[in-house]
Amino acid sequence: MEPLRTHSPCINLCKMDDEDRYCLGCRRTLDEIAVWSELSDLEKDALWQVLDLRRQAS
Known about the structure:
Blueprint (H helix, E strand, L loop, with lengths): L29 H6 L5 H17 L1
């Protein structure tokens, strides 16, 4: 089993995509960015999986 990814996905390239409404750097929505510090480790890892899919789709 792979270790959980709990570090922030922020890469300091903060620019929101007007169409898809997520950050072009980390691929998180504003809501996901706002709650990141409140998420459990499992929730952070689950969001990382979503971000991976968003990157693949772009």
